[in-house]
Design brief:
Helices cover 33% and strands 20% of the residues. It has 479 residues and is α/β, with parallel strands linked by helices. Strands 14-13-12-11-7-10-9-8-15 form a nine-stranded mixed sheet. A six-stranded parallel sheet has the order 3-2-1-4-5-6, sandwiched between helices.
Length: 479
Amino acid sequence: MSLKPVEPQSVVIFGATGDLTRRKLLPALYHLFIEDLLPANFAIVGSARSPMSDGQFREHAREAVEEFGRTKTLEKWDEFVPLLSYLAGDVTEEGGCSALGARLAQVEKARGIEGQRRLLYCATPPSVYPGIARRLGETGLAARGRLVLEKPFGRDLATARELNAVLHEAFDEEQIFRIDHYLGKETVQNILACRFANGMFEPIWNRRYVDNVQITVAEEIGLEGRGAFYDSIGTIRDMVQTHLFQVLTFVAMEPPVSFDPDRLRDEKVRVLRSMLPADPKRVVRGQYAGYRDEPDVATDSTTETFAALQIEIDNWRWAGVPFNLRTGKSLGRKVTEVSLSFRHVPYNVFRGTDAEPPGRDAIAFRLQPNEGISLLMNIKRPGLGMELDRAELDFDYAETFASPLLEAYEYLLLEVMEGDHSLFTREDEVERAWEVLQPLLDEPPPVIEYAPGSWGPEQAEELILPRHWHVTTAHEHRP
């Protein structure tokens, strides 16, 4: 996971006029360019159905960077523009990739990158993945390509297996990069650093000392015009099978023998194989009031916009420790956090006094919006007598490090360019995650309406009793 000099190569973005390209990919590539993290010999070719000239695509890219880019300076724009070109057409049609192959050859010759690697990014609906992969294979464009796919990877176990089979007709597994942008976040990777580089944490990172684990991914926003897509997917397929399970594996995995990509992913798979199948009785599905009035949403939709569930990991390290996961839209605040709450001390010397500990000690990893790590503990309040209070020891990335962090997509794009699979999902990971969730997909509990701006249905609180949900970034720690 260490960045190396990126070799000369070209990038092809399928779905180049879409929302993901506009909001994330073009701003990320431009920021990498101005930070001198891209090679001198480099090219970006956009591909989509919309008729557009090179000049129009370049203007489209400029508007995307101005609106969504982290840097507001366009001082290097004139240097970046020659990297951009565009080809209109449907690459999933018979022979649809032939014109793309000719254009790539032209662009790569002009940029001095003939015969080099190609990054093939599918910023398209997942339904298009099989068609793109087959056409790339038929035209020989798959040979030097690294194929990047966005979630979800299938809709269930059967469709995930079908998709993997189609991909492998044209691409080896080593060429496939299933991207989960949460794994590009610094704090997610810092879970590994915190665990495996500090002697104080790893000895207590187990069932003997940890009472429960919570992972919260909460969004304030609703659908933002993505009604048709979201109503066909729901938050369990969109978030739980991908983001939450991936973060969970970082929390629960055994120490890898090395940080070789496959050794790291082996340990993640072992966590997934230790997970018991999801029990629909230990799941709460919710839908925010007004969801069915959103554009492109069915008036009788039963798609969940909130999910809370308990997962059990049946192995030596974690047996008996509940992993409580929740995620949803239109919730109280945008916050993503992982926390481990530790068991109470074995003997409470303050029992029967006014100084009883007010809560469990805990460690929390803040993934967004303010990335950092917090330790929560019980301390004596200053003054006469013995009165206990809560204290938070806080590490904040923005305050500690002067250099700005690479955003997740920036980091992961570089990882693909250098061929490092460490932070990407392997075939067996995807299929096992669907296998764990399949009972829930087969027999989903009914959706329960909740008020926008709340923290979901009340039944989600009942699900984890006698414990409580908490987000330490709001100083609401009540484990």
